[in-house]
Amino acid sequence: MEDGLAELASDAAVELSQLSPLAELLQRATGLDAAGLLAGDAQELQTLLWGLALAAYLFATPGVLLGALDTFLLAPLDALLAPRLKAEDVKLLKRIGDGTFGSVYAGTLGAQSVVAKKHKPGVEGAEELQRAEQYFNARCRRSPVLRRGCAPFLGSYPGVGDAPVLVWSDRGTRTLADLLEDSDPEALERALRLSLGGRTGVARDNRIARQCMRQILTAAKDLHDAGIVHRDVKPTNLVAMQSTLGEPRLRLVDFGAAADLRTGFGFDPKRGLCDPNYVPPEQLVLPEGTPAPPSFAPLAAAGSPFLWFLGRPDLYDAYSCGIILLQLCIPALRRRNTTSPAGTFQRSLAASDYDLRLWRAELTNSVYDFSVLDAGGGLAWDLACRLVRPRDALQRGRSSCAQALLHPWMLLP
Predict the structure, then answer these.
(1) Which of 29, 48, 92, 283 has the highest local Cβ count within 10 Å?
(2) How many CB atoms lie within 10 A of CB 20?
(3) Residue 150, strand partner residues
(4) Partners of 175 in beta bridges
């Protein structure tokens, strides 16, 4: 068989040698001698294929090689070089936000304005979620790519019961929910300094929605590329923040429900931490029956590319992004809790099996204005339909955030 393979390779080499200009161009562009490669020993060809397979595995999402670099080099360096915060260094001024598990405060760190988050003592799971958020914010801080879509994390100091108090640089605290509910119709474009290109009416609103979705999808995609699923993408967790470089942008906050599918941190196959207003119909980030990750993180990382390929956990956040797209474009869905499971929207969407096209076709006396989604040939509506839909039997059937960023609507200026 090996002799036959060598003979076949030799014949192919002869044919390639007759295409000398093409072979020469290939060699100059890639450094590979195509004819020589095919004419070489079958063992060398097999070695090359194994090498390509290994490279594909190491760099496949969520990145075994990059994960090892982060775990064994960047994380220790970050722990060594990160500023050491003390309780007396941070002065908390007033409470500016309150949730089920924690409270957010405005404060100062020296001359710098900061935002701090404390867990609520006595609330079950609050301390666990606070430590989870500390883990994910530290991961984002040591990654230049993740930093652009997340709040600038400064560090933490021990609080009640040694649970960490988390501290961020204050670059803005107005959430997308605040801006959507603002009575000022220009609040969102002013907060993000959006360029409207002279557009007015529905064309203007369509462009605003597109620019916002580009920022949201990019932030989620960057997390997914690093193996992180946020699991709580919603307007209250998207904050308009100033940037040291460029224009303000929407950044993701609140990683208490996130799961690191590279190491298994924060992932429990039987538990789904989610906001019912934005959760996809499958409820869980990975299919039911997915085994718990090994407790030994390197072993979990070794199997993560296969788990990611089979389960596509990134599609969980993509659905939530689709609901936000609808809220950006349909004024009647912007008020808080209009997407709650008990509301008309969610009940009718569930009755249509989460098929947006069917849902819209079955509406009667609709209070929903689709003009922004339909503007420009309905490209925004098409993207919404690709995001807000159930998965298929292969855990696909819904566009990912990466695919959504390549949608024709998103490629418009």
Answers:
(1) 92
(2) 10
(3) 252
(4) 239
Report the sign of the C-alpha dihedral through residues 129, 134, 137, 138, in that order. negative
Binning pLDDT at 50, 70 and 90, where does residue 22 land? very low
Q: What local confidence, expressed as pLDDT, does residue 275 receive?
A: 86
Please name every residue paired with 106 in a beta bridge, in sequence order, or none if there are none. 94, 115
Rounded CA gap, 234 and 61, in Å? 24
- Round to whole Å and give the CA distance between 321 and 380: 13
pLDDT of residue 36: 57
Residues that are catalytic: 232
Beta strands (DSSP E) in 21-163 are: 90-98, 102-109, 112-119, 153-158
Instruction: Give the whole-angstrom CA distance, residue 373 versus residue 329.
Output: 6
Average pLDDT of the residues of the chain: 88
Q: How far is CA 319 from the centre of its chain?
A: 11
Sign of torsion over alpha carbons 345, 348, 351, 356: negative
Q: Is 352 exposed, middle or buried (0-12, 13-18, 19+ CB in 10 A)?
A: middle
Residue 99, judged by CB atoms within 10 A of its CB (0-12, 13-18, 19+), counts as middle
Tokens representing 394 are 């292969």
What is the rounded CA–CA span in Å between residue 392 and residue 217? 22
pLDDT above 70 covers a percentage of the chain that reads 90
Amino acid sitting at position 276: P
Give Cβ neighbours of residue 139 (< 8 Å, ≥ 6 apart).
70, 146, 226, 228, 260
Q: Is the peptide bond before 62 cis (omega within 30 degrees of 0)?
A: yes
- Domains for the chain: give ranges and CATH numbers: 64-169 (3.30.200.20), 176-405 (1.10.510.10)
Task: For residue 290, give the DSSP letter.
Answer: P
Beta bridge partners of 155: 167
Residue linked to tokens 């002869």: 14
SS3 228: strand
User: Which amino acid appears at position 203 of this protein?
Assistant: A
Distance CA 221, CA 317 (A): 9
